[in-house]
Amino acid sequence: MTHVHFAGRAYINKRKTPHILKLIGVLLLAQFLFGCDVLAQPTQSEGPATFETMRIQETHQDYTIDIAFPLTNNSKIDHTLSQFISQRLIKFKDDLLETSQTEARSGDNQYILNARIAYQSENVFAIRVSESAGIGKKEALEIVHTFNFNRLTGEDIALDNLFPHQENYLKVISELCYQRLLEDTRLLGVDAALLKDGTLPFTQNFSSFLFEDDTITLIFNSGQVAPAAFGAISIHIPLEDLTQQMTFNPKAFEAGYISVYPIFPVLLEGVAPSESAYFNTAKTSSVKAGDKLIALTFDDGPHPKYTPQVLKILENHQIRATFFMIGKRARAFPDIVKSLHDAGHTIGNHTWSHPQLTKLDKQQIMAQIDMTQRTIDRITGVNPKIVRVPYGRFNAEIHQWINMPLIQWSVDPEDWKSRDAQKIAGHVIAHAKPGGIVLLHDIQSATVEALPSIIEQLSLQGYTFVTVEELFELNKKAVYYQQELKK
Ligand code: NI
């Protein structure tokens, strides 16, 4: 069998069922039924293969859903897509919860997602996902997401995998795109500053692209390079134009290629994801009012040796903490990031390479934050919601640019300086106050050694350990040192 053809359409159309679980169930069922075809490859002479479309239409009390996506018969690709869709749905529901009752009236809330195969060849499977999440009367803008699967391995290939180890690749693409958009007749009259802003060399600006063997189509979302009314703007760049200036990695879409910078964690094929893995962004807090709360925070990791040790200690005591990670370390140790996230700890952004932000310009600062956001999002599927600036140094302008809650601390044992477990534990225990934030570093042995006695002593004093997100109702314009004491 060389050709995959499915004519049927699957519909799931029931009220008030956990549709994600159902969706996964159907995917697994489809894999079970058609499992023999997983390795089948369409041949070029027969034209591109067609695939079954999964359609989910549901009407709930306060929203409707209309989702369509292809079942590619590659379990890894199908899994990545379903995981992505479930995360986007969770986000929609979170946004809905945050909207006031009067704004979010039934019938006005509509989630539409349409994923289609934009391009396929022997080795490439490029998928364009168009999403529109309408809440209340606000007009819903289309958001485009893309996937570029290596058809043979099922891996989602990121742009940096096409030009690996070339620090300048974003600059080259940025300049090319800016020039193309300047000359684009569709964008006549659009402010050049807007074009410039939307094409600055940040990974975030080029996260939507479709690889089509000899062309790369870059997609700029509504509002990115032109006013939102222009909608999403696509431009096609011949691969030739890029390879003149840098080396393209031709292996990215070949058999056996493993991403240098994986977008999603590698998942074991055939293992059904658990419900909690899907819904762990919505963990309920066991914190009660009046509790003596304290937040342990760990900076500068992940560290390949010490962070797993910290994780183990936290697990033994069944407590959760907050980790402010350095982006490039997160990229180097994605498995550790993933295991922290899966265990329910909060992950915050501690910049890409730990510079003092007050010495950088806006563009450099945004790159430090954005690259870290994107890396952690790739690994965990969740964007960090909090930032800790290196050395605690920032000013009002920097905070405005970052536009996220800044988390400082109230207890600092200077663990990096003393490197003495007894001193570290003694300082924390002596200075702990309800509502406090303890600054620690998960990159050295003394901190790991001090941790059990910190937890045991503070527990004896009646403290409950929480994450930063549990300690505060976070506001992106605020800076947090400790919980305000109730008067
Ligand atoms: Ni730090």
Tell me briefly what this model is.
With 487 residues, the protein is an alpha/beta fold. It has helices at 19-34, 75-98, 159-162, 169-183, 192-198, 239-243, 275-279, 306-316, 327-332, 334-342, 362-380, 396-402, 415-418, 421-431, 445-460, 468-471, and strands at 10-12, 52-59, 64-71, 110-120, 124-134, 142-150, 209-211, 215-220, 233-238, 292-299, 322-325, 346-349, 406-407, 436-441, 463-466, 479-480.
In terms of DSSP E residues, the strand content is 15-25%
Shape: globular
The small molecules bound here are:
nickel (II) ion
| Main beta-sheet annotation | 6 strands, mixed
Strand order of the largest sheet: 1-2-3-4-5-6
Compute the separation of the termini in Å.
74 Å
Structural class: alpha/beta
Count of strand segments: 16
Write the layout of secondary structure elements.
Blueprint: E1 10-12, H1 19-34, E2 52-59, E3 64-71, H2 75-98, E4 110-120, E5 124-134, E6 142-150, H3 159-162, H4 169-183, H5 192-198, E7 209-211, E8 215-220, E9 233-238, H6 239-243, H7 275-279, E10 292-299, H8 306-316, E11 322-325, H9 327-332, H10 334-342, E12 346-349, H11 362-380, H12 396-402, E13 406-407, H13 415-418, H14 421-431, E14 436-441, H15 445-460, E15 463-466, H16 468-471, E16 479-480
Parallel strand pairs: 1-2, 3-4, 10-11, 10-14, 10-15, 11-12, 13-16
Antiparallel strand pairs: 2-3, 4-5, 5-6, 7-8, 8-9
Helix pairs in contact: 1-2, 8-15, 14-15
Nickel (II) ion binds at residues 299-300, 350, 354, 390.
How is this structure best described in words?
- The protein is of the alpha/beta class and 487 residues long.
- It has helices spanning 19-34, 75-98, 159-162, 169-183, 192-198, 239-243, 275-279, 306-316, 327-332, 334-342, 362-380, 396-402, 415-418, 421-431, 445-460, 468-471, and strands at 10-12, 52-59, 64-71, 110-120, 124-134, 142-150, 209-211, 215-220, 233-238, 292-299, 322-325, 346-349, 406-407, 436-441, 463-466, 479-480.
- Strands 1-2-3-4-5-6 form a six-stranded mixed beta sheet, covered by helices on one side. Strands 10, 11, 12, 14 and 15 form a five-stranded parallel beta sheet that branches.
- Helix 1 packs antiparallel against helix 2 (75-98) and helix 14 runs parallel beside helix 15 (445-460).
- It is globular.
- The termini are far apart.
- Mean pLDDT is 82; it is low at 1-21, 27-45 and 264-287.
- Residues 299-300, 350, 354, 390 line the site of nickel (II) ion (NI).
